[in-house]
Amino acid sequence: MSKNIWTKVVFFVSILFVMGACAVSEEQVLELAQDSFEKKMSQERKEHTYTTEDEVSFYIPSYMEVTEIDEYNILLHHDENLFLLFVNDFIEYDSKEVLMEELLLEEDPFIIMLDQLEGKSSYLVVTTHSQDEFQVVVGYDGVKLTTITSLKEMIDTAEMMFDIAQSVDKED
């Protein structure tokens, strides 16, 4: 009987060890976010896969669905994940303070990055939404995407959001 108990204890400790090894720390996310932000700024734009009735064209992953709210707001969704795409955010953010003010942030965000490359500004802002969730806002050249995600999914989500935001073309 004691062999059976020890087997269960070893199994339980092994599971805890594996779960701990798979967990993502906030420090790891900060480092990965910085690397990802820099890479996304210089990447090639993705090809358009969707065009709205108002002739806004952009890339979306094949698994996403689109609901057009109006000419400036587009709702993207997959399962329970929602993304609000806002086209026409033409405010120049020349400092983190201006960006925080525009986004109505009262406290310092978990992540805030702001950059400009070849005349196109971009930003990544992550704030705490709830105990286990974060609000992610990605902006690129007059396009803003917002969603709520977990710490574990944050980097992949932000990278996909950059792919979408960078691809947007609005026909005038």
UniProtKB/TrEMBL annotation:
Signal sequence interval, chain numbering: 1-23
Recorded superkingdom: Bacteria
Keywords: Signal
Protein name as it appears in the record: Uncharacterized protein
Taxonomic lineage of the native organism: Bacteria, Bacillati, Bacillota, Bacilli, Bacillales
